[in-house]
Design a protein that fits this description.
Blueprint: H1 9-12, E1 19-23, E2 31-32, H2 38-41, E3 46-50, E4 58-71, E5 77-89
Parallel strand pairs: 1-5
Antiparallel strand pairs: 1-2, 3-4, 4-5
Length: 91
């Protein structure tokens, strides 16, 4: 269940025409996605990002399970997600 009263709505309203991720387990933060395909995000259930630090022996993948979507009056696509991090050994 999403606790909308815990979302930092003041942070959300600072943006316009962006794609925002809000983790429902910790809804006090907002993550802004860089150059996402909005149309695709309306159709998929997961969004995955890869750690960009190639010098570490351990890599990370962040998996965002999209549980709900909304568009606000500033044309932000807001994705409510449950996130998890998966670590793997780089070869």
């Amino acid at each position: 269940m999403i606790e909308y009263e815990r979302v930092r709505w003041d942070s959300v309203k600072e943006y316009g025409n962006q794609v925002l991720l809000i983790d429902i387990n910790n809804p006090v933060g907002v993550t802004v996605l860089d150059n996402p395909d909005r149309e695709t995000l309306l159709k998929v259930d997961k969004y995955i990002t890869h750690d960009t630090k190639d010098y570490n022996a351990i890599g990370k993948v962040f998996i965002y399970n999209i549980v709900d979507r909304a568009i606000d009056d500033k044309n932000n696509l807001i994705l409510f997600v449950k996130s998890e991090m998966v670590q793997y050994r780089r070869y």
